[in-house]
Amino acid sequence: MLTRQQGGRDDDSNLFAIDKYSGWDRVEGGSRVNAGIQYTAQVNRAGSLNVMFGQSYALFGQNSFQVGDITNTGLDSGLDKTISDYVGRVTYQPNQIYSFTARARFDQATFTPERFELESRANFDRWGVTFLYGDYAAQPDLGFLTRRQGFLAGASFKLTSNWVVTGSAGYDLIAHQFNQTRVGIGYVDDCVMLAFNYVTGYAYNGTATPVQNTSFMLQLSLRTLGPDTLTQAGAY
After folding, report:
1. Which of 14, 19, 46, 110 has the greatest number of beta carbons closer than 10 A?
2. Residue range 68-83: average pLDDT?
3. Do 166 and 151 share a domain, yes or no?
4. Are residues 160 and 101 in the same domain?
5. Domain boundary at 73, 88, 121, which?
6. Model confidence over 164-190: pLDDT tens digits?
7. In the beta sheet, which residues pair with residue 126?
8. CA–CA separation, 168 vs 181, rounded Å?
9. What three-state secondary structure class fits 223?
10. Does residue 108 share a domain with residue 21?
C-alpha cells in the first residue's frame, strides 16, 4: 500500500516549514536550520519549470522526531537525525491543464533513495485526474517491514460548483494486486468542507503480513483553518 508518513516526514513540501508535523495537534520542539535552493523558470509558450533541493539540521534542544511514542511518529522519517536526509523535487507545468512532478528523498550518508515518486496531474473543466508511481524504503519502526512499490490513480468530477465525487485505486507492484480503493463525495463552499469516503486498504501491526480493513471516513473542516484537500483525487 502506498502510504506516506502523515505525522511528520522529510520531503519537499515542508523543507522550509517552521513546524514539520502535519495537522494541528502537535508542535515540533528544539531548534533547527532548513537550507536549500529553489529555482523557477518561466518560458514563453513552454510553461514553467521548478527545481528544489535541500536538507535540515537539528541544532539544539530535543529533536521531536527522534522520540518514539505509541505510534512512533517521526521515526524513519528522515528527520530523526541531526542532519536530515536530502529532499528534492522537479516540477514541469507546460500549461494550466497538465503538471508533471518527480520528487525524492536520499539518505544523508549514502545518498541511497529512501523515497521516489513520479506524479502527473490534469484538470479538464469539471474533471481532474492524477497518476502516481511510488517507491518507498522499509520503515520498520512504523510497521512497514519491506520496501513498497506501486501505482495510485485517481479522478474527481464536479457535479456542481459545490459538490464533487472522487475515486482512487492503488496497485501493489510487489504483490501484483490491487491493495486500496477509495470512493467519496464531498461538499465545498467558501466556509466549510464536508466529505464522506469509503476506503479499503491494509493495516500494519508490526508483523510481516498486513491485514485488510474497511473504513468509512467523515471529514468536516473550516476552510479558513485547514487545507482544502477535497479535490485532490489521488490523495493518500
Report:
1. 14
2. 82
3. yes
4. no
5. 121
6. 999 999 999 988 888 899 999 999 988
7. none
8. 6
9. coil
10. yes
List all residues 6 or more positions away from 95 whose beta carbon is below 8 Å from its beta carbon. 47
CA distance 139 to 137: 6
What predicted TM-score, i.e. pTM, was given to this entire model?
0.80
Q: Are residues 114 and 131 in the same domain?
A: no
Cell numbers at residue 45, please?
509558450
- Whole-angstrom CA distances from 210 to 144, 170, 177, 179, 202 are 9, 15, 14, 10, 6
- 65 SS3 class: helix
Q: Summarize pLDDT for 13-27 with one digit per residue, the tens.
A: 888 888 887 766 777
Catalogue the long-range contacts made by 206-212 (C-beta closer than 8 Å, 24 or more residues apart): 206/143, 208/145, 208/146, 210/1
Residues 6+ apart with CB under 8 A from 27: 19, 21
Alpha-carbon distance 130 to 231, whole Å? 11
Q: Which segments within the chain are labelled E, that is strand? A: 31-43, 47-60, 86-93, 98-106, 113-124, 127-136, 148-158, 163-172, 177-188, 192-203, 211-222
Cell digits of residue 99: 503538471
